[in-house]
Automatic annotation (TrEMBL), chain A:
It is an enzyme of class 1 (oxidoreductase). The lineage of its organism: Bacteria, Pseudomonadati, Pseudomonadota, Alphaproteobacteria, Hyphomicrobiales. Keywords: Flavoprotein, FMN, Oxidoreductase. It catalyses: 5,6-dihydrothymine + NAD(+) = thymine + NADH + H(+); 5,6-dihydrouracil + NAD(+) = uracil + NADH + H(+). Pfam families: Fer4_20, Pyr_redox_2. PANTHER family: DIHYDROPYRIMIDINE DEHYDROGENASE [NADP(+)]. Its EC number is 1.3.1.1. Residues 34-64 form the 4Fe-4S ferredoxin-type domain. Its cofactor is FMN. Involved in pyrimidine base degradation. Catalyzes physiologically the reduction of uracil to 5,6-dihydrouracil (DHU) by using NADH as a specific cosubstrate. It also catalyzes the reverse reaction and the reduction of thymine to 5,6-dihydrothymine (DHT). Heterotetramer of 2 PreA and 2 PreT subunits. This is dihydrouracil dehydrogenase (NAD(+)). One of its GO terms (molecular function) is dihydropyrimidine dehydrogenase (NAD+) activity.
Automatic annotation (TrEMBL), chain B:
PROSITE patterns: 4FE4S_FER_1, 4FE4S_FER_2. This is dihydrouracil dehydrogenase (NAD(+)). Keywords: Iron, Iron-sulfur, Metal-binding, Oxidoreductase. GO terms for cellular component: cytoplasm. It comes from the Bacteria. Its EC number is 1.3.1.1. GO terms for molecular function: dihydropyrimidine dehydrogenase (NAD+) activity; iron-sulfur cluster binding; metal ion binding. It comes from Nitratireductor pacificus pht-3B. Belongs to the dihydropyrimidine dehydrogenase family. Transmembrane segments: none annotated. Residues 338-371, 373-403 form the 4Fe-4S ferredoxin-type domain. Involved in pyrimidine base degradation. Catalyzes physiologically the reduction of uracil to 5,6-dihydrouracil (DHU) by using NADH as a specific cosubstrate. It also catalyzes the reverse reaction and the reduction of thymine to 5,6-dihydrothymine (DHT).
Amino acid sequence: MADGLYADGIAAGRLPGEDYEKNFADLHPPLDGHEARVEADRCYFCYDAPCMTACPTSIDIPMFIRQIATGNALGSAKTIFDQNILGGMCARVCPTETLCEEACVREEAEGKPVQIGRLQRFATDAAMQAQRQFYQRGAASGKTVAIVGAGPAGLACAHRLAMHGHAVTIYEAREKSGGLNEFGIAAYKTPDGFAQAEVYYVTAIGGITIERGKALGRDIALAELARAHDAVFLGMGLAGVNALRAEGEDVDGVENAVDYIAMLRQADDLGRLPIGRRVVVIGGGMTAIDAAVQARLLGAEEVTICYRRGQEQMNASQFEQDLAASKGVAIRHWLQPKRVIAENGRVTGIELEYTVLSNGRLAGTGETLTLKADQVFKAIGQSFDAAGLNGSGAAVALTGGRIQVDGEGRTSMPKVWAGGDCIAGGDDLTVSAVAQGRDGAESIHRALAG
Amino acid sequence: MADIRSVFAGIKSPNPFWLASAPPTDKAYNVERAYKAGWGGVVWKTLGEDGPPVVNVNGPRYGAIWGADRRLLGLNNIELITDRDLHLNLREIKQVKKNWPDRALVVSLMVPCEEQAWKAILPLVEETGADGVELNFGCPHGMSERGMGSAVGQVPDYVEMVVRWCKQTTRMPVITKLTPNITDIRQPARAAHRAGSDAVSLINTINSITGVNLDTFAPEPTIDGKGSHGGFCGPAVKPIALHMVSEIARDPETAGLPISGIGGITTWRDAAEFLALGAGNLQVCTAAMTYGFKVVQEMIEGLQNWMDAKGHASLDDVIGRAAPNLREWQHLNLNYVAKARIDQDMCIKCGRCHIACEDTSHQAITAMVDGKRHFEVMEEECVGCNLCVNVCPVDGCIDMVPLAAGTLDKRTGATVSADYANWTTHPNNPMAAAAK
Ligand SMILES: Cc1cc2nc3c(=O)[nH]c(=O)nc-3n(C[C@H](O)[C@H](O)[C@H](O)COP(=O)(O)OP(=O)(O)OC[C@H]3O[C@@H](n4cnc5c(N)ncnc54)[C@H](O)[C@@H]3O)c2cc1C
Ligand SMILES: Cc1cc2nc3c(=O)[nH]c(=O)nc-3n(C[C@H](O)[C@H](O)[C@H](O)COP(=O)(O)O)c2cc1C
Ligand code: SF4
Ligand code: SF4
Ligand code: SF4
């Protein structure tokens, strides 16, 4: 049997050692000082800037760019952190092409927006490298707040609460903090241990304790947290994964994309991480793209994304789709999984059915197609796992399977707020989780002060 | 955090950034928006004498020059002093000062060059509770044709006379605003000082024409096919303004006279430079007119950040710090030798340094070495002029490296001396003082 690149089945070490480092290097390398000045010079300092409106955390983009232009990178970083304490991660992972940069007036003018994300990275890198802390813990209020989940929502909430002087304890199910920043985001968007460096930077304000390995529902109960603290913030993300609903999906080689990515993010040596020779990814969002691209970067020979609707309906942005294509991923539309084909309990292929939209409803045409596959990744969305709310589950109302909140992030249960992916009506972005965590903290602060 | 509270000619403001007398300060609406945005003070748009107000043209008042990406580099205007009723202005000034007691509010004035005219208007301003007056001897267009503005500012005797009238009449601090349209800026400053002016402010705008429409052969801005010269301001005038501020700052005759620095201030850096050369506070017009009042936040925050980084606790630690380093040419050290050095890793091989040096300077940069495109400084030819540094498109690619004392200057064949020696003692100077 062939080794390396052409090894059949699921195998590690498909590439020469040095290729891994090259493949997983920074997707958008940092701007150097000169590049940043030239790019900053392009900004018009717009009034009521559209880019700022498009940013879920409403960073004062014209101001921070002007500060870069005037050689004041640290001041620029503070402008960013004032609104978004995870501005470093957002600079790396935000789909700017559908957020600030899509709204930039230079996109309208010449199809070339100011590179806001990379400028944001320039400024935040400068402050983090200098270990410059801009905020101090507020005078102790005597109030304590429990946060569930140390992802972007929980961390942003904790930082803002600490600024207001409340003592925060974060309960985190995993052994490592950061949420999907640490376990989900594509490796090439946040290399070099940035997620942990950021957790350190954010919590350095003081007054924030993180209890790792403590899961709500397993080790602690919501009712108990609400009793013991003045307020609770739920930032638990989405722990569940949607099922394919394809026949025979419970065989070896059919995996959740998010679990595989988490494994990849934690791998010490990517050369020892097994990947299929022929990989099929089911889904049309960011996770599907990330799984597919990283599979290719690990040396998979054939990677195909199959999405049940058309290109326009894909959740992944055009930029993400182009990125996948540039890495040699094939994206096929109007195909839904029907049956997983297996031999000896291992996947060998997948049968898909063509689909059409008829009267606004998606329907199979009956015609099928079979693709060979050693590995199938399910990336058809995550779901909120409400089991953790047990004991008080009745009190926390859900909408569409996620936690229902009002305009301030309050749940139906007194003293309990929620934000990030786990709430209903969100858009599953890091930056939105940060905004909701921050705003939840402000709402909690108002409630505790009042 | 650095303390940037300012006291200028006895007038307090929470920061040294004032809006200069111009459209941004023409009425209560603008001024209150400016205060909200964080400006430390304003000089109200120039008021004229009682009676029917002046009128402005009803077409373009502004012309401009731009960089290639339409960045506004210089603005020219043919606007006059306020065209609103004097008493309306005075009522608004009184109300605004009442609403914003912690901000500076100075009133700019320009009335005919007659004692009675000045003595009539000053009590009216005093009555508003304003913090001071600024005498506009600067406006170079329109008003000057009527014997006011720069027509006064260009004659030091008139400046002295008017300032004297004002000082006799009012207890308010008097700031004299100078026109740059003059050969030696120290003359009107000295005149103002002699008459007891509490401070000077400069620069007002510079006589200019920003362009000519080549289809109609009319100067820009064009009013019905004709144009008029205007006053130039904005980033392009900063070097001229810096020089004029420094001239007054180091003039022994006006020592201690507070200077309000104006002209092209756009960023915190510009502001810090004016302060360093001796300005006690800053006035801004074009930057606000280009970007809105919010720009002041960048200036305030940037100035504080820089002061913090350098350990300057208050404005007094900065003001005038660069003035002693400004010398006459004849006092520069002729034994200081520097050579350009190109960082070959940064060089993108555009050849601009070579052609600038080859065609127009000292033939000190190679273009080709061993058949390869290669740009390198020949120390034996380099006079250290800095032209290549200025034309190189890559930041920091060419450095001017001083030669240490004791090393050989390959161009002159002399050893670099550690001693200071200037033109006054140089052997080629026919007037050289005998070496001691
Ligand atoms: C593969 C993938 C790629 C993505 N790429 C991008 C991207 O490029 N850009 C972007 O903007 N967004 C991206 N997203 C979305 C983004 O990661 C999320 O929107 C964001 O992380 C949500 O933050 P959060 O704090 O709500 O949840 P999470 O980041 O999921 O954090 C929740 C935390 O809660 C913990 N937790 C869960 N249950 C419990 C419990 N019962 N008790 C205690 N702790 C618990 C979890 O362990 C986790 O640490 C991606 C998502 C995925 C899955
Ligand atoms: C449109 C316009 C009108 C001005 N009107 C006045 C005025 O009424 N009185 C005055 O003293 N200066 C006036 N000025 C000059 C400014 O106060 C200021 O001295 C000059 O613009 C230089 O500063 P800047 O480079 O920041 O614009 C005016 C400038 C402009 C652009
Ligand atoms: S929209 Fe573009 S040009 Fe305007 S402020 Fe934002 S980044 Fe600058
Ligand atoms: S800036 Fe305002 S007043 Fe002036 S020409 Fe434009 S729209 Fe008219
Ligand atoms: S001008 Fe600068 S970049 Fe161009 S050749 Fe000279 S040193 Fe190199």
